[in-house]
Every structure is written in structure tokens, then in C-alpha cells.
Amino acid sequence: MGGTLVLLALSTRAADDWVRYNAQPAGSKVKVEGTSTLHDWLVESKLIGGYIEFDPAFNPEKPAPGKVNARVAVIIPVRQLKSDKTAMDNVMYDALKEKEHRRIGYRLTEITLKEAPKSPDAPFLFDTKGELVVAGVTNQVQMPVTMTRVDKDKLKFSGSTSVKMTSLGIEPPTKFGAFSTGDQVKLTFEWLTARKAEAK
Fold first, then answer.
1. Residue 158, class by beta-carbon neighbours within 10 Å (0-12 exposed, 13-18 middle, 19+ buried)?
2. By CB distance 3.0 to 4.6 Å, which of 18, 28, 107, 116 could disulfide with 14?
3. Which residues, including other chains, have CB under 8 Å from residue 91's CB and lie 6 or more apart?
4. 109-139: pLDDT as tens digits
């Protein structure tokens, strides 16, 4: 299922009139924070691939609250998630079944603009629903997402949600009985995208 999602994310092509923003190689990050019997822990990746596409009916200059017709596909290579401890990273990669599932994927299923921005520089506030694919298991997630216009051609998205590792089919890691990790983890991201250049 995860491999199919990634293949679709890479091969999907929108109609010519959709407005596409591609992930940028710099300016993004995703953090995963959790707890253990030893200490709190954090892993982070600065690489978030993928794209977002908006139906041309969505006008960011005069947005109307309500459902937005958009498509999002996100890919995060598991090996890009790192802490400052190699041993911890290896335990995490094993828990994520990295050898069989090398990428974390996300596909948007619904996005709703809660209210129109109060000024040209104010962020857009969305409610979103989507499918998060981790270690080959697909889970439904909901989260509030903020969209900020960085300049006329760039958009930055940010959001945060909490999930249980067991709901994603992941057994919270333990190490020789010395420590165990909590089931609940917090996911936080900032994702920078830039508008795809028009074909000449």
C-alpha cells in the first residue's frame, strides 16, 4: 500500500490549469517528539518532498471559507530522520521497518479554509484530513494547518498533531529492558513550497 501511494504521488500529473507548488530543497523541517523511561527524545528531518496543487477556482487573493479543491502528496525518506545519537537512530529505523518501507508518505483527502485571512499578510487557517503511511500502515489523521505567503511565488505550510505509534502499526521501541518509549508522539512540520514555473 505504501509503495503504491508513493508511486502515485510521483506519477500523478494535474490538469494544465491547476496551480502547483513544489517542495523546496531547503527551508522545511519535520520533528517527531516523544518520551521514554530515560528521557524525552526528538528526531528531525530537513527534507520534505512532494507538492501541493490548487484548483484554479481557489483565489488566494479573495479566499472564501469552506472546502478547497486541492491535492497534496508528501514524501519523507526515513533515513533523513535523525537525532544526535546513532544508536537511537538505528533503533528508530528498525521500529519504522526502514529496510522494507524507506519512505513515509502523506496524501491529503480533505482541506477546509476555516476563515478568510484578516489582512494580506495574515496566515490562512485550514482544517485538514489525510492518510499518513508509516511502516507500510495507512492511518487517518486530522490536523490544523497554517499557510503563509512567503512571497508571490512561495507558500509555507505548518502544522502539528499527536498520534500513537501503535495506531500506525509500530511497536514502541525498547532496548534490552534498559528503557522503553511512550506510545504517544507529537509530529510538527514546516514545509516550504514554490510555484511551478509556467511552461513556455
1. middle
2. 18
3. 173, 175
4. 999 999 888 888 899 999 999 999 999 999 9
Distance of CA 79 to the CA centre of its chain: 15
Instruction: Annotate the chain with DSSP letters as a single string.
Output: -HHHHHHHHHH----TTSEEEEEPSSS-EEEEEE-BSS--EEEEES--EEEEEE-TT--TTS--SEE--EEEEEEEEGGG-B-S-HHHHHHHHHHTTTTT--EEEEEEEEEEEEE--SSTTSPEEEEEEEEEEETTEEEEEEEEEEEEEEETTEEEEEEEEEEEGGGGT-PPPEETTTEEB-SEEEEEEEEEEEEPPPP-
pLDDT for residue 178: 57
Cell, residue 48: 520534505
Cell of 67: 472546502
Name the percent of the chain lying above pLDDT 90. 58
pLDDT at 200: 52
Average pLDDT, rounded, for the chain: 86
For β-strands 184-195 and 29-34, DSSP reports them as antiparallel
Confidence of residue 5 (pLDDT cuts 50, 70, 90): very low
Contact (CB, 8 A) for 47 and 80: yes
Nearest Cα to Cα of residue 65 among 3, 111, 129: 111
